[in-house]
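Risk mitigation, structural track. In case the binding assays with D-serine fail to produce interpretable data, a predicted complex structure has been prepared as a fallback.
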Amino acid sequence: MSSPTPFTSRIDPQHAALLQAEEKRQRETVHLIASENFASAAVREATSSPLNNKYSEGYPGARYYEGQQVIDEIERLAIARARALFGAEHANVQPYSGSPANLAVYLAFLKPGDTVLGMQLSHGGHLTHGSKASITGKYWKIVSYGLNRETQRLDYDQVRDLARQHQPKLIIAGHSAYPRQIDFAVFRQIADEVGAILLVDMAHFAGLVAGGAHPSPIPHADVVTTTAHKTLRGPRGAMILCRSQHAARIDKAVFPGLQGGPHNANTAAIAVCLQEAAQPEFADYARRCVSNAQSFASGLLEKGFDLVSGGTDNHLILVDLRNKGLGGKPVAKALDRAGLVANYNAVPWDDCPPQNPSGLRLGSPAMTTRGFGEAEFRRVTEWIDRIVRSRLDESVIAAIAGEVRAFCAAYPLP
Ligand code: DSN
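Fallback model:
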């Protein structure tokens, strides 16, 4: 068999060995991290293309470097596809990733010290929605909303009350660990009532929106940010979609406000992934992400796992392990040793610190890409349950590691 890394193997065998080890790890394990996916060979081809060699500060038709004949066309194609797929008036495809995309929105609309209303990190929000640990929590006055304690779903009354009380300039809807859909229309009403800009961060569920398996925030939000590499299954990178009236200030915030030259190879790969996401097969993929997550959730509930909000209507599940008497971190590490890759996560009203929280976040997107259906996710549930019931016994973990490796052989990487 020819080497999968012929060029690196010749110049840097040490690194080639690492590349091959990671490829093997991905091939032989079950990926349950809700924000991860497997990009297609076409997407990966674009990321490793000669486009990597070009500097292109500026925007199509208005660059600070010459030689943009092809790059301009590529960026225009990505923009046109993003606008068409999501029905957006304007698209900026240059943000390096989700955090810079969100920061660009802060820069576009706020002055330091202005008030922002976002979802609390421990209730499922993202670092850039105002966590103290992030620049967003240091430079702006953050007010946080969370879930209703009884339903464990978003508390819209609390969002409205906090908005009336604090009069934020920016309201952020969106999450990185909330297993339910968001009522974007209610957020729009609240933003209108207090005269705030509404930002929806749809990074986690953008692929579901593209495939019609989740409501779209576009008709409701002033600005929508998303990464390209989660459910959307593209390269690392991000996009900002907005109404035309905000286009100039968003573009200016991304470049020159926050970034230098765009990563052209990633822009091209975004264009490719948007083309893939516009196909009928992708709608089927998005629908299966949700149905797989729902049947995964039902299986876990049958085994006595406590799920935040009692289930899911998107691609992710948040397990509260407190009724099992085990912490999220030791369980995530034990699952990893068995080849079941997930992440420990805070749960709402967690009594443990974020470094050692009580939850485990699971997701369906990556393994749905590799062909897992409901039967395969039932198998995963059995493995998780056996490991937890054994109280993380190493002999059980080792036995399951062998089963997982053998099982994965039938589900190749794209
Ligand atoms: N770090 C991502 C996640 O895992 O949800 C969000 O940016």
